[in-house]
Amino acid sequence: MSVLSGKKVLLGISGGIAAYKTASLVRLFIKAGAHVQVIMTPASKDFVTPLTLSTLSKNPVHSTFFNQDEENEKWNNHVELGLWADLMVIAPATANTLSKMANGSCDNLLIATYLSAKCPVYFAPAMDLDMYIHPSTVASFKALKEFGNNIIPAESGELASGLSGEGRMAEPSTIIRFLEADLESKLPLKGKKILITAGPTYEAIDPVRFIGNHSSGKMGFDIAKSAANLGASVILVAGPTHFKVDHSLIKVINVVSAQEMYEACHQYFGEVDVAIAAAAVADYRPKNVATQKIKKAADNFVIELEKTKDILASLGDRKKNQFLIGFALETENEIENAKGKIQKKNLDLIVLNSLQDQGAGFGKSTNKVTFIDKDFNIEPMELKSKEAVADDILNKVIAKFNE
Ligand code: CTP
């Protein structure tokens, strides 16, 4: 999945011949899963039509401060557009537009939006070779870099003037690759390794029966996806679940029993920075597993159970620098029980679910959690989707690395 997936991209197009390539650029953004809104300078409409770009971006194209052609004349709010965007890309960026950006000459919607945008800004210059090296252009580049804007370097090659040299706008595919690489390098969990357990475990009684629980695995899978989207490499040790995940940064290890989960976790724990135990591990398993299907006979039937290993506590024992997060599912004395688990399992943070809270627990798409850290600071959270809870948990991890 591209790091651009779900991102809101504001594409500013200024008036150069390379504007014709923005049709492909918009296509590539959409293909990567981004949401695109286009702002055109008046001059750019001589090179590519707003209709083409609105069709490809699936959004109206913005160009003037007012939409005169609309029934109810509507103001294009540059502040709103600027705040909407996760990133702004100006391509092609002509010498004229770059100069206006550098000097704040706000005479069109694109520049007004640029000045309002709080998100990262990228620009892909496009001009003839002599314009590209003119001190005025070089001064614009310098100023824009000082503002924190990112230049997507122009390429060398044949130019519209017939001359050959540096100044050609980077190809759309190069622009996309540049943005992906830059965004990936800035992800907050880039370079971190996280072990996550998810789902239930099944403890065999005989070849066809088991003791299990109703955990769906959703919480652990949501944490894994969120961690990977933040740049972490994830090892997801999953008990039996119907959830699947396809992400280049997530390695799934499928297990069935608590013992298998224990072994998989210990195989990887030494190499990770963070471990998050979201699995609902069986606390007991049948002491003897029948090799053949058990036939019904007596009216009463007793299965002797023995304790499984506490995976999280065993990771707590082995812990060196790892940030260790556990879950606690409680029905009474929630805070006290959770605090006890922090100490017993040597945790840095516990995510407490109380079954007394509406919307929390197994099989639900929402969760209501309370964070308790190892110093017993208590932070109750709102009822949220499990995806949002996953983000909250990873914000705690990010905060830990920024300490
Ligand atoms: N856990 C684990 N291995 C086990 C049991 C639990 O790793 N054999 C982990 C869970 O993934 C969770 C945390 O321990 O992160 C708390 O699990 P919970 O069942 O609430 O606590 P227990 O320690 O099993 O205590 P109890 O069932 O008595 O509440």
TrEMBL record:
E.C. code: 4.1.1.36, 6.3.2.5
Keyword presence, Lyase: yes
Pathway given in the UniProt record: Cofactor biosynthesis; coenzyme A biosynthesis; CoA from (R)-pantothenate: step 3/5; Cofactor biosynthesis; coenzyme A biosynthesis; CoA from (R)-pantothenate: step 2/5
Region (Phosphopantothenate--cysteine ligase): 194-403
Reactions it catalyzes: N-[(R)-4-phosphopantothenoyl]-L-cysteine + H(+) = (R)-4'-phosphopantetheine + CO2; (R)-4'-phosphopantothenate + L-cysteine + CTP = N-[(R)-4-phosphopantothenoyl]-L-cysteine + CMP + diphosphate + H(+)
Xref: SUPFAM superfamilies: CoaB-like (SSF102645), Homo-oligomeric flavin-containing Cys decarboxylases, HFCD (SSF52507)
A GO BP annotation: pantothenate catabolic process
Domain DNA/pantothenate metabolism flavoprotein C-terminal stretches: 189-398
Segments forming domain Flavoprotein: 7-178
Co-factor: note: Binds 1 FMN per subunit.
Chain spans, region Phosphopantothenoylcysteine decarboxylase: 1-193
GO molecular function list: FMN binding; metal ion binding; phosphopantothenate--cysteine ligase activity; phosphopantothenoylcysteine decarboxylase activity
Pfam families to which the protein is assigned, alphabetical: DFP, Flavoprotein
Transmembrane segments: none
GO cellular component annotations of the record: phosphopantothenoylcysteine decarboxylase complex
Residues reported to bind CTP: D283, K293, F327, K341, K345
NCBIfam families noted in UniProt: coaBC_dfp
Record family assignment: In the C-terminal section; belongs to the PPC synthetase family. In the N-terminal section; belongs to the HFCD (homo-oligomeric flavin containing Cys decarboxylase) superfamily.
Protein role: Catalyzes two sequential steps in the biosynthesis of coenzyme A. In the first step cysteine is conjugated to 4'-phosphopantothenate to form 4-phosphopantothenoylcysteine. In the second step the latter compound is decarboxylated to form 4'-phosphopantotheine.
Protein name (record): Coenzyme A biosynthesis bifunctional protein CoaBC
